[in-house]
Structure formats: structure tokens, C-alpha cells
From TrEMBL:
This is Phenylalanine--tRNA ligase alpha subunit. Keywords: Aminoacyl-tRNA synthetase, ATP-binding, Cytoplasm, Ligase, Magnesium, Metal-binding, Nucleotide-binding, Protein biosynthesis. It comes from Campylobacter canadensis. PANTHER family: PHENYLALANINE--TRNA LIGASE, MITOCHONDRIAL (PTHR11538:SF41), PHENYLALANYL-TRNA SYNTHETASE (PTHR11538). One of its GO terms (molecular function) is phenylalanine-tRNA ligase activity. SUPFAM superfamilies: Class II aaRS and biotin synthetases (SSF55681), tRNA-binding arm (SSF46589). Its EC number is 6.1.1.20. It comes from the Bacteria. Gene3D superfamilies: Bira Bifunctional Protein, Domain 2 (3.30.930.10).
Length: 330
């Protein structure tokens, strides 16, 4: 009879439990048969047997009721959950998802350079002053720091204003040659039609020992890259200034809106600025302990590329989460 009590706990649902009770106390049940045998007994033996059977019956019913209540509550909850989440239901009005234009643009750029055997490097978003400024030839009180309105913390740490610190960290931990790109979010205190406090950059760095690379190599790779991104555009290099490169240049492409004829977007110049570039400044190499080597680098804003590729007039619309804009990229 103890085995029958143990069988109660083994039941997985109320149906199994009901079948067990029929097996025990039904017309042809195991305990029903034992009760039927009492008529053949007499005296004390009959009393003792009847006492054992009645005690078992009472104990069985108590454990049966408790287990039945437990399983019934579980089945009710499962039924409610099934009604609430019908995973077999197919919504004919469901819409397709899509990558955000910023992420799809970033993926396209990363794919281009990784196919050319550039490594993908990442670094911390919260940086220190050395990696974000000083190692990049921007010592304290350098006027060029004013070009990057920075978010500072109380402990002299800051939100990185560019992904250039990743280049510094890579050079500190790796010997030349280096071919790398550094994508990621950066932060500056700006907000208007063409600037947001958080945006995305991708920077590229190439370093070779024995001065084996020149500006001609940089010019060649950028012309090919920009034609890959924007099609058959003209590429123009203008002399400029960046503390961490020398010589430095701004890179323009022929306006994708007016095809170099002149419009409001390009301010009637026929060209749109898309990135900065240059040969790595000797002071930067000195700060990371590099000697007898040369390199080049560029940096671009992913949002600016996304705006030009998709002809989006206001940068802020990329961060507003307006479905009317995002549904255009399905």
C-alpha cells in the first residue's frame, strides 16, 4: 500500500491522478478488493485488517486532495498563459524589421576595411586625458581642445570625444606594422541640425616601419573607399590642420544632391566635406614609443555618411525614433 501512496507524487496531471484513484478505489480497485475480503475474516483479525484499510483510505484521500489542488492550480495557470501568448498565431499585418541607417552605414564601412585585412579595434568609452588628448599632441591648454566641447567627470576622466584613443592604445600594445579601424560612439556638447551630443565615428590607422608609407598611399585608399560608398564621385583634398597629423587635409566629395552644380546643401560650392585625414604626427609616435616609422590616418562621422547616402536633411531625425522615417529603410 505504501507504493500506492508514492504513486500520488509521481502523477504529472489531474487525469493521471484520477486514474490512480479508480485503480485504488474503483469497483475493481486494489483496495476495494481488500475490503471485499473482510467478509471471510472473523474476530480480531477482521478488526485489525479493517483498521489498516480505513487508515490507508483516510491517508490516501488526504494526500490525493492536496496533490489534486496543486496540479489543478498549475493547469489553470498554464491555460491562462497559453491564451495570453499564442505562439502559433501568425499576424498577416506584421511588418519586416530593418537595420537602423546609422548601423547599416557603419556595417558597410567596417565590411569594406575588414575585407582589406584591417583589424577591428575597440576601446573604453570613458577615457583619461592622456589617451584622449595629450598622446594625440593636444597638451593641456592647447587651443585645439576648444574644437571639442568635452563632457568631463569629477575625477578627471571624460567621455571620449573621438575614437582616436583606440589608436593610441593599439600602438601602446602592438608593434608595427598596424592596419586597423576603430568604430564606436563618441560624445561632444553639441546639438543642432548637423551635430548631436552622441554620435559615431570610424577612424583608420596604418603604420609601417622604415617610413614605408606616404600621403600618396592615403590618397589612393580614400579615393577608392569614397567611390565604394557614394558611387562615381569626384574627390578633393584641401590642406587643413589637425594636431595629430602633419600634413593634414579635409576630404570633399562632389555633392550627391546636385552632382557638383551647386545647391543649398553644398552651399553652391558643388562639394561636401566628408572627413579629415593626414600623416601621423611625429609627436604622436614619440608619445607611444615608436621610432623610424610612418603612418597615415583618417576619421569620419558615420551619421554624416548616412545622411548623404540616404539624403536625410536633419541629423536629429536619426535619433527621434519616428517610424515614418525608419520604415523607409525596410
Amino acid at each position: 500500500m505504501e507504493d500506492l501512496l508514492k504513486s500520488i507524487e509521481l502523477c504529472k496531471n489531474t487525469d493521471e491522478l484520477e486514474k490512480l484513484k479508480v485503480f485504488v478505489f474503483g469497483k475493481k480497485g486494489a483496495i476495494t478488493a481488500e475490503f471485499a475480503k473482510l467478509k471471510d475474516l472473523e474476530g480480531d483479525e477482521k478488526k485489525e485488517k479493517a483498521k489498516i484499510l480505513n487508515e490507508f483510505k483516510e491517508k490516501f484521500n488526504l494526500e490525493f486532495d492536496a496533490k489534486f489542488a496543486e496540479l489543478k492550480e498549475k493547469e489553470i495557470k498554464e491555460a491562462e498563459l497559453k491564451d495570453a501568448f499564442n505562439f502559433t498565431y501568425f499576424d498577416l499585418n506584421a511588418t519586416k524589421g530593418a537595420f537602423h541607417p546609422i548601423m547599416s552605414t557603419m556595417d558597410k564601412i567596417i565590411d569594406y576595411f575588414t575585407r582589406m585585412n584591417f583589424s577591428l579595434e575597440e576601446g573604453p568609452i570613458i577615457e583619461d586625458d592622456f589617451h584622449n588628448f595629450e598622446a594625440l599632441n593636444l597638451p593641456k591648454f592647447h587651443p585645439a581642445r576648444d574644437m571639442q566641447d568635452t563632457f568631463y567627470f569629477a575625477n578627471s576622466l571624460l567621455l571620449r570625444t573621438q575614437t582616436s584613443p583606440v589608436q593610441i592604445r593599439t600602438m601602446q600594445n602592438t608593434k608595427p606594422p598596424i592596419r586597423m579601424i576603430a568604430p564606436g560612439a563618441v560624445f561632444r556638447r553639441d546639438f543642432d541640425m548637423t551635430h548631436t551630443p552622441m554620435f559615431h565615428q570610424i577612424e583608420m590607422l596604418v603604420v609601417e616601419p622604415n617610413n614605408n608609407v606616404s600621403f600618396a598611399n592615403l590618397k589612393s585608399i580614400l579615393e577608392e573607399f569614397l567611390k565604394y560608398m557614394f558611387g562615381d564621385v569626384k574627390v578633393r583634398f584641401r590642406p587643413s590642420f589637425f594636431p595629430f597629423t602633419e600634413p593634414s587635409a579635409e576630404v570633399d566629395i562632389s555633392c550627391v544632391f546636385c552632382n557638383c552644380k551647386g545647391c543649398r546643401v553644398c552651399k553652391n560650392t558643388g562639394y561636401i566635406e566628408v572627413m579629415g585625414c593626414g600623416m601621423v604626427h611625429p609627436a604622436v609616435f614619440n608619445n607611444v614609443g615608436y621610432k623610424n616609422c610612418s603612418g597615415y590616418a583618417f576619421g569620419l562621422g558615420v551619421e554624416r555618411f548616412a545622411m548623404l547616402i540616404h539624403k536625410i536633411p536633419d541629423l536629429r531625425s536619426l535619433f527621434e525614433g519616428d517610424k515614418r522615417l525608419l520604415e523607409q529603410f525596410k
